[in-house]
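Milestone M4 deliverable, item 7.
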Amino acid sequence: MLKNLFFLFVPLCIHAQDVQKIHANAIVVDSHNDILTACFEKKVSMDNDLKGKTHSDLNRFKEGGVDVQIFSVWCDGKKENPYTYANRQMDTLDAVVSRNRGKIALVRNQRELKRAIKDQKLAAMFGVEGGHMIEDNLDNLDKLYARGTRYMTLTWNNSTSWATSALDETTKKDSLAKTHKGLTDFGKQVVKRMNELGMIVDVSHVGEQTFWDAINTTTKPVIASHSNAWTLCPIFRNLKDEQIIAVGKNGGVIDLNFYSGFVDSTNKNKETQFARAHKKELDSLKQSGVQAEYALTMISEKYASEVQAARPPLSMLLDHLDYIVKLAGVDHVGLGSDFDGINSSPQQLDDVTSYPLITKALLERGYSKRDIGKIMGGNILRVLKANAK
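Output delivered:
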C-alpha cells in the first residue's frame, strides 16, 4: 500500500518542476489585452506598478512569462474621430517603449519579433478592435498597419457601413434585412487590402454573415482574437461549431477569451443583477465621460467580493479549449485573454501573472509539451508568419 502511494506522489513532484520548465520554454503570446484603454480611462501608465488597479503592467507581463503581447486599440462606436483616438492610444504605447527600451520593443516583422524574444523583451504589436476606426478609408488602414497594427477586428459590437456585427445581427435582424448583412463590396475590399498588407483578419465580434463573407474572401489565415465556443456558452460573441471548423480549415486560430460571461452561460444573469444593484454609480461614471464598458469594470473592482463569488472555475475555460481542439485540432487554438477589457475572469486567472496556471492545467489534462507550446503561442505565431508580406 505504501509503495502504491509513493508512485502516486512522485509524478506530482515531477509535475511541479515540469510546469515551470515548460512555461519558461514556451513562447507565450496573448492576442488581446486592453491595457491601453484601461490606462486612458484610469489615467495611469503601463510602466508603473498597477497591482490592484489593472490586470496588467509592464513588470507583471514579465512575471507571467508573456513573450509577445498584441495590444488592443479600442473605442466604442460612439466615439468621435475614432481614427484619431486609435492613434492617441498607439502614442501611449510608443511612449512606454521609449522609456523602457530594455524591457519592451514594438515589432513590425518576423526579424524584429525574433530579436525581441531573444533579447528577453516583451514583443509588442497592435490589434485594432473595430473596423469603424478606419473611418471607411483604406488609406487609414494602410497608416495603421505602418504604425504596427497586425490585425484588425472587422467590427466591434457596433456595425460599420461595410460589415455587420454579431450583436447587430442578433438583435437587429429586421432592420438589417432592409439594408445589408455581412460584408459589402467595400468590406471585401478591406479584407483584400488587409491580405495585401499582411494584416490578419480578426473575426471576433463579427456577425455570422460577416464571418462567412470574410472566410470566403480572405486568402490568408484568420484569427478570432478573443472568442470561445458557442455550444458551451451560447452568447452572440462565441463561435458556433461550423465556424470553429471553418477557422481550422482556413488555417486560422481561435484565441480563448477569459471573460466569465463568455465562459459560463450562467454569468450573464449574475452580471445583470450586479449592474442593477449599482445602477446609480454606473450612470454617474458614464455621465462623467467614462465609456460604458469601463464603467462596469470600475464598479466591479470597487465591489470585488460580489464579482468574485460569481467567477467560474478555471476548468470551464479549459473545457472550451478542449472543445475547440476536438472540432478543429490543437493547431487552431490559442490565448486572447481580454485582460483589462473585462470585469470578471475565471477563478485563479487574476491578472497577467496567471498564465503559468494555464500551462499547469494543460499538462494535467494530458496535453504534450509540443501541444502546450502550440497553444501558449506557437499557433498564433504561425498565423502571423503566414500573413506577413
